[in-house]
Write a structure and sequence with these properties.
alpha/beta, 2 domains, nine-stranded mixed beta sheet, Adenine-n6-DNA-methyltransferase TaqI, Chain A, domain 2
């Protein structure tokens, strides 16, 4: 992908035959990227530099650079690249380095702690302030306020890289969650630092959760979508397709950023190592989240551009409750209302119980309304999610719920509530939610693409397809992704998201 872009921008020139191009992997591990780049340069420069030793010396000393993420990985990278953990050792393939590190830099870097977290990467002091005998995981590339000055300190004042490439660390423990299991994404920090260096090209493999934002990623998502320098993006939405056995919810993607590119990005979807549909050139910022399936964009355009009496339709996301709609966490009450002064029925995590009305601290006026509840985390840990949402719960007057649920809407009658539940079961609605749902977690934002229609009637998929002019081809696409749900699912289990 990189070589193709180089040729397109340089009159068909061969990237691997250019002795002036400099490459940096700022988070090298085993050194595989730098080794493969070197292999291509050794072949591509053979005509210009017929002497193999001269050629290898030039490539490894003038073109190939890396920053190890730990001391061990720096040694592994040097072993891969120089065939010796010491660049100036007798067995090293490059002859001319005066230091053991060569061009694979690593020095221990310390976190900057404030109120228990690192001010640069958000790492937990309790977890990673472990003394000199342990790795700090304070990555030099993102522990600086001025990345250009930092690179000049490492490699020299005249260092300008043409290509930054690699697979950055994805996350670090932040000390939150049960037993400190929570983690903060950090790959976004590497991406931003690389862009600040202004190379000609950047190519990285990153998790795709930034497409819809989320924990620590909302501002990053907005910047990425608005940056028109992305040339190509190849998306792997299925779990395990890229890294077998590694559970990266939401999938991963690799992409190419070009400093001199301005315009649309070529988007490709890959499932089971096959291209799905056709690559499409489109702007990434057409919506506030990245719509990852090209076939879905035309459908969403029809829904978002629909006008009734000249006015756009309201969004269901505007009426969905925030987390903890009644101010309750995971309380569990009594199995019956006996002995409770003012009992209400509480819907909780896979159970119903009774609590006193006085325990409700938010939206008390909703207790005696008809309402629709949906779990805020749904799906499995497997590859496919064809249901998208849990089974909607019709909750009558005298009810509330824990944080397991969101209140999707309030209704004036039982019949209206049942119509609402039927609407939420449609493939059409669940498809629109799927465009914003990238993990098990479902927030009010996940419903932003869903129209808030009047619930004085039953809405079927056929009605909705007709209303928005969805073609037979588009219907087939929707129904290939979303399972039919004509009635309540029996025995379905909704998993809580591990974040």
């Amino acid at each position: 992908m990189l070589a193709q872009a180089w040729a397109a921008d340089h009159g068909g020139a061969n990237l691997w035959a250019d002795p002036s191009v400099r490459f940096l992997d700022p988070f090298t591990k085993s050194g595989v990227f730098l080794r493969e780049i070197t292999n291509r340069l050794v072949k591509g420069l053979a005509e210009q530099m017929p002497d193999l030793q001269v050629r290898v010396n030039h490539i490894l000393m003038r073109q190939i650079f890396g920053i190890g993420i730990t001391r061990l990985t720096s040694l592994l990278a040097r072993r891969s690249l120089y065939c010796s953990k010491k660049a100036n050792g007798p067995h090293a393939v490059a002859k001319g380095f005066t230091t053991e590190a060569g061009n694979i830099w690593f020095d221990r870097t310390e976190h900057t702690w404030a109120r228990g977290k690192c001010t640069f990467c958000g790492a937990s002091q309790e977890t990673l302030d472990r003394g000199e005998g342990m790795e700090t995981h304070a990555y030099a590339f993102i522990h600086t306020h001025d990345i250009k000055t930092r690179i000049a300190e490492l490699f020299g004042d005249d260092m300008q890289f043409d290509v930054i490439i690699g697979n950055p660390p994805y996350q670090l423990g932040d000390g939150g969650g049960g037993g400190g299991a929570s983690a903060t994404p950090i790959y976004n920090l590497f991406v931003e630092a690389a862009i600040q260096l202004e190379p000609r090209y950047i190519s990285m493999i990153t998790p795709s959760r930034w497409f819809s934002g989320g924990k620590g990623l909302d501002e990053f998502r907005d910047r990425m979508l608005q940056d028109q320098r992305f040339v190509k993006l190849v998306d792997f939405p299925q779990l395990y397709d890229v890294f077998p056995g590694v559970k990266i919810r939401g999938g991963v993607s690799y992409w190419l950023w070009g400093r001199d590119h301005q315009g649309a990005c070529e988007v490709t979807t890959m499932i089971s190592n096959e291209i799905i549909g056709n690559p499409v050139h489109r702007r990434l910022d057409a919506y506030d989240v990245f719509v990852r399936r090209n076939e879905a964009v035309c459908i969403l355009d029809k829904v978002s551009q629909y006008r009734l009496n000249g006015r756009p339709e309201a969004s269901l996301g505007d009426q969905v409750s925030a987390r903890k709609p009644f101010g309750l966490t995971n309380q569990r009450g009594k199995s019956n209302p006996k002995g409770i002064n003012d009992p209400i029925l509480l819907f909780g995590n896979q159970c119903q119980s009774y609590i006193d009305r006085s325990l409700v601290t938010s939206n008390g006026e909703w207790i005696d309304r008809w309402k629709i509840l949906l779990v805020k985390a749904h799906g499995t840990s497997g590859r496919d999610d064809f249901s998208i949402l849990g089974e909607p719960v019709v909750a009558g007057p005298g009810t509330a719920c824990t944080e397991t649920y969101l209140v999707i809407g309030l209704c004036g009658s039982e019949s209206e509530a049942k119509n609402f539940a039927s609407y939420m079961r449609t493939r059409f609605v669940r498809f629109l939610v799927s465009l914003r749902k990238i993990t098990q977690n479902i927030t009010r934002s996940s419903y932003k693409f869903v129209p808030a229609l009047p619930m004085d009637r039953v809405w079927t998929d056929a009605d909705l397809y007709q209303r928005y002019g969805i073609t037979s081809v588009e219907i087939a696409f929707i129904e290939s992704l979303i399972a039919d749900r004509p009635s309540e699912d029996a025995g379905e289990v909704d998993e809580m998201d591990d974040e």
